[in-house]
Give the backbone structure.
Amino acid sequence: MAANRLMSDFPPAPDKLVTLANWRKSPYSAWGFRNVRQLLPTAEILASGHFQSLETDLRDIGQTSFKGRDGREATLASALGSSNTDACVVLRRGRIAAEWYGNGMSATTPHIVFSVSKSICGALGGILADRGLLDPDAPVTSYIPELAPSVYATCSVRHLLDMTVGISFVEDYDDPDGDVIRYRYAVGWDPLPAGRESPDLRGFLATMKPDGKKHGDVFHYVSTNTDVLGWVYERACGQPLAEILSQFLWQPLGAEKDAYIAVDKHGAMRAAGGICVTPHDLARFGEMIRRRGVANGRQVIPGAWIDDINSSGDPEAWARSEFAELFPKASYRSKWYRIDREKNVLLAIGIHGQYVYIHPEAELVIIRMASEHTPLDPDSALGWRRGFDAIAQRFL
Amino acid sequence: MAANRLMSDFPPAPDKLVTLANWRKSPYSAWGFRNVRQLLPTAEILASGHFQSLETDLRDIGQTSFKGRDGREATLASALGSSNTDACVVLRRGRIAAEWYGNGMSATTPHIVFSVSKSICGALGGILADRGLLDPDAPVTSYIPELAPSVYATCSVRHLLDMTVGISFVEDYDDPDGDVIRYRYAVGWDPLPAGRESPDLRGFLATMKPDGKKHGDVFHYVSTNTDVLGWVYERACGQPLAEILSQFLWQPLGAEKDAYIAVDKHGAMRAAGGICVTPHDLARFGEMIRRRGVANGRQVIPGAWIDDINSSGDPEAWARSEFAELFPKASYRSKWYRIDREKNVLLAIGIHGQYVYIHPEAELVIIRMASEHTPLDPDSALGWRRGFDAIAQRFL
């Protein structure tokens, strides 16, 4: 496959060379997304070294049919083969019903999950709150007084968790000179043009301004809120985020492999989008969410935190948001999308096609990793949602 | 300990902040050398997942006495505690006789070993030659024709292995505008000053010029030779160096943890100095060398390659070198120093105090990792050599 030829020679041919300047662009992303550590500074999220292999109970679901991205009927097998999918694992009752790998991926290759990182950090919040380390209702500035000059002066940790900060930030991934590109320079994900300077991530977060809306009223998706959340965790625990993730989540989960997270030039860790995990470990994580926070026979995330995701997302804040058109009957709580309010179907979403889909009634977890061309392709998101629902339907 | 406070707050205080600009300077190096992946792009060198824990047979050697760095009598315990030592492991007959950790290190924390990387790559060469993948006597340009305009046009792989290339390069780590700093910009180990440009590592290697001396005549320590060697391996195997190291060395060795290696902005891997390994795995590696290439009951490195290190180093090439004063009776072969030609004592050396010491007669392997202030401190090197010899003496 063409993507596998990337970086394959020494040196790679110019059109096969993946760099900091092109790693999120197609076709380079097919290599870049599974080799983030070769492009950026990263910190390890240590696994414990003790894990149980995932059991298999293979099901023939490749012919599952659904209306794909282009609105035409497709099978799961054909959709996976034609959509820049890097990995897809389907767990039914915790066992592998199907798995698929492309573009050089394997079950144990870490792949960046972008904003699925947010949902991982949202789950972590429940653990820290349960331990008394974090107060979700406390003001952000009780942890980070330096944010007093910013929009974060007046909001709570809960507003960060639920993405209801009244913040002025246009999350347009394609604007060549907007908030997002300044953010990327701050985190070091794009090369800084000659002569241009940038604050580091924490410095950038302190510049965020209000948009005039009341905190709590509107679901307003802004990545920096989750970076602030990760910073709050660090202050709350007195440890770097990678260590907190390891100690409270990755080790008790029984992850098979170390995960890792991108860091900026001064050690700030990208809670909003920089976590890289293996397909099997992301599946284990999804399965833990499905089991109300239980993994390895122990309660890792408090069950009440998962229940709260299902019960306390504000449908009105959602209805007022830019995302309401995409998923009309959803809500959002603690960094998780509840896309079906009747069946409590939960979704974690990352740009370029990363998903964790949890369908409790079908006892189903699906994870997908991808290197889709565009960061946010609503047609693709809707197609995959239909695909995941169709798989769930087979198990109902 | 003060070094442990580095990077401990969020953000760290300015005098506790470790960055690309200070990570090799004291005191920042005490954190930087065990967190290279948080500062640089890196590639993993995968372990197999199967390893045997090192057995222990503890010996009370802390009071071993020797003439230290300052020429005064010291004990091993006091020397370890006052020399920016990060880790020291003493294996006697393959079992841990003593181990010591400081500055936040543990048995399983990867630490950069600088030019000990060269010795690791030298051992790898024996494996590749044995498999018929590498011909040590072949011209470098038979693997890398692009080096024809450089000094490497006329030398063989063997000249790279033995550091006898007649190359013009002043390996002065303290010169603010010499060959070394240009080399550092090329590999991305120092921030590029505003307005300055640099080739990547491979581009830099192609600019190396001859010094007029005949290849093979003089041991002339130049790091770039080992980067070229790593590049030769990549061409010989058609794989990135990190994969070659994993497949042929790290997995068969039975390493406990993944190691990793620094990469430049275009994926070139730092064979000369960028490998980061854990103390226990470096001890396993040293023990394999001591056992003539055997680990886990199998011959990983050909015994003849180790024998050749002991028999074929050229004492005359050594006698003509800048290092002859430091270790008068040594020789150098396949990236290993043989510092005692009677007892075949082997040494691997990295800047800032990294060592692997192998004393066959005493059935002893010692590894030391450190964050010494100066890159190359001859007094310290001589002191530690006396210390290692004194430990060996106890077991003779």
Summary: Chain A has twelve helices and 17 strands. The interface with chain B takes residues 7, 10-12, 17-20, 35, 37-44, 194-195, 200, 202, 231, 234-235, 240, 258, 260, 263, 265-268 of chain A (CB under 8 Å). Residues 378-394 of chain A form the longest helix (17 residues).
